[in-house]
Amino acid sequence: MKRKQLIILLLAICPLGAFSQMQESSLSKKEIRKSRPTYINLSAGLNISKLRDFATSPLFYNGTAKTFSVSRLKADDNREIEIGLSYGFGNYSSSFNGTTSTSQIKTFAFNYSQLYAIRSLSTEKWNVRVGALFNTTGNFRVNPILQNNSTGLELFSTLFGSVKATRDISSLNRFLFFKLKPADRTLSFRFNLGLMNNTYRNGYAYSGQEGVLNDDGFLKSYEFKAFSGARFSSALDYTVYLKNKNGIRLSYEWDAYKTGGNLDQFEMSNHTLKIALLFNKK
Amino acid sequence: MKKIYLALLIIPFFFSCEDAMFEKDLASTDPMTNFEYLWTQCDEKYSYFELKNIDWDQIKTKYSAKISNDMSEEALFTVLGDMLTELKDDHTNLISDFNISFFGVDQLGQDNYDSRIVKDQYLSEDYYISGPFTHDFLANNEVGYIRFGSFTGTVDNTNLDFILNRYKNTKGLILDLRENGGGAVTDIFNILSRFVEKETILNYSRIKTGPAHNDFSEDKPVKVTPHDGIRYTNKVMVLVDRGTYSAGSFTSLATKALPNMILVGDTTGGGLGLPNGGQLPNGWTYRFSITQALTLDKNNTFENGVPPDIKVSFDWDDRTKDEIIERALKELL
After folding, report:
1. What is the C-alpha separation between B322 and B333, in angstroms, rounded?
2. How many CA atoms lie within 13 A of B189 on its CB side?
3. A154 and A266 in contact (C-beta within 8 Å)?
4. How far is CA B159 from CA B153, B246, B279, in A?
5. Which residues form the Tail specific protease domain (chain B) (predicted)?
């Protein structure tokens, strides 16, 4: 199984080098890189999420969280590179059979992504890119009813294979009941498939014995597992570019992941609506 | 335009995707479902089946026969709580919004502590309270008496410095841990670091690492290092009884490795496993032990109680004195 996943991973990454050679330009690579538009992307969003940690409970916890993120985006028709951080927080509750329990969650994430255009699939209106996304997400959870297991921390690092299709909809002058002003607009959809899912979580018994060992090693009972579980994510973005070259982006993002294992599986999904301001740096 | 609307239809698609990706919703009030879940959690994670010689399969047979589809929540709670009580462990509880099950290890031995007798017969009217400690001089200021009734997690350098400085010229201390049901383990090491002069291995610990009853990690040493400040080097008599439990028992176990600390009283209640916590499909919560504490010779039998070095019992026919304090004073003077 691991071998198969490794082969898929290599097949997904190898084409990146080839696509990067497809540019036909009289400019040098350095000149192209320097001329590529760069944006600082500040966004805020609202998550609707659910999670379940079988290590402590078979019940789903549902809730909403606020999310804030910042990223640096360099993109043109040939290449897109984005690096960013995000932070979210919220309360997730399980209410069943007269018992309500709440888990407070803080989520940190790091993203790095590179996408390359596939010329053969791209047209004047369409741009299709493939590439990879590396994401590390960490959840810090506190659920008091679980007593010695009340604190949970988990890290998920995933290497995704990505496909992104962008449609130029600048000619669109009406959307639902709204009349649109002339502007550069794009609608894009990105899908990410987790090729290598790694987890760093509590060990078998969930609670570590550091306390009774008089040992400060906070994460000593944690275990790293490579190729464990599954993850998918996607993003639907609607972007309007202003006359000053800045942009506004409305997004719907979906992210779902689960770990492997039997007793201690962790499952979480996020549906996020975001608004972002893109500040052009060039 | 149609393509845009089509794109928006992917939102419900992803909700259905994750439903397929995740396991089914297991929330349930079905009595047998909850019974099986709790039994399995204990079977795969509880740490003292072998020491206590508990046939957990036989327990399943015995208690599953009491489960029926139409039983009330209260009746189900009674069956599940009774099943956990078979573990004979006060670190084991079932918790609902209407009841909490428990074993009650302090009932296994006689009561050996009366705070009123200590106050009336031994402490002065102006005894001190420093953080979680109640303390005073005894025996013409030759002995310091320190009552520590619960590991509250509030033991700190300020209250320990004050107490040890106050009793620095005494012949010895009495640390009274009777009916101390435990609490924060950090307090254990904050206290013990004042009574050692070098790094000392107190005991060993191991944790469950797999579903078999004897799947454990390697034995890891529990160490205490001397506090870099005020310490006490004379004898300390540690008073214990059946009500001395959990962190109280950990402290008692540690004294076996410390020659200047002597246990006086009755066998402790045990509770040397670190309890975890979890939730059942019906929302109730539970806890039970997932570690074992071992002596320096890697023996786990002190889970059933740490035996005193000097066994003394209370005489309830004579309420003018505390026999256990009296014996401790005799050792120190």
Report:
1. 16
2. 20
3. yes
4. 12, 23, 38
5. 110-313
What's this model's pTM, rounded to 2 decimal places?
0.88
Tell me the Cα Rg of chain B: 25
Q: Considering only CB atoms, which chain B residues are within 8 Å of A204?
A: 45, 208-210
- pLDDT means per 10 residues, chain A with 282 residues, are 51 46 59 81 95 94 96 90 96 92 96 93 89 96 92 93 93 78 89 94 88 81 88 93 91 92 84 95 76
B26 touching A (Cβ < 8 Å): yes
Instruction: Locate B133 and state its tokens.
Output: 């400690």
Identify the sign of the CA torsion A31, A32, A33, A38: positive
pLDDT-wise least confident of A96-110, B18-32, B150-164 = B18-32
Q: Does B76 touch chain A (CB under 8 A)?
A: no
- The string of DSSP letters for B26-50 reads -----HHHHHHHHHHHHHHH-S-TT
Sign of the CA dihedral with B130 first, then B134, B139, and B143 last: negative
Residue with tokens 């009296």: B326
- Residues paired with residue A198 on neighbouring β-strands, in sequence order: A157
Name the region of B154 (left: φ>0; alpha: ψ -120 to 50; beta: rest): alpha
CA B279 to CA B97: how far, in whole Å?
Answer: 13
CA B52/CA B88 separation, integer angstroms: 8
Q: Which of A54, A62, A97 is the best mutation test for B, with the most CBs of B within 10 A?
A: A97
Record: contact B276-A207, CB cut-off 8 A: yes
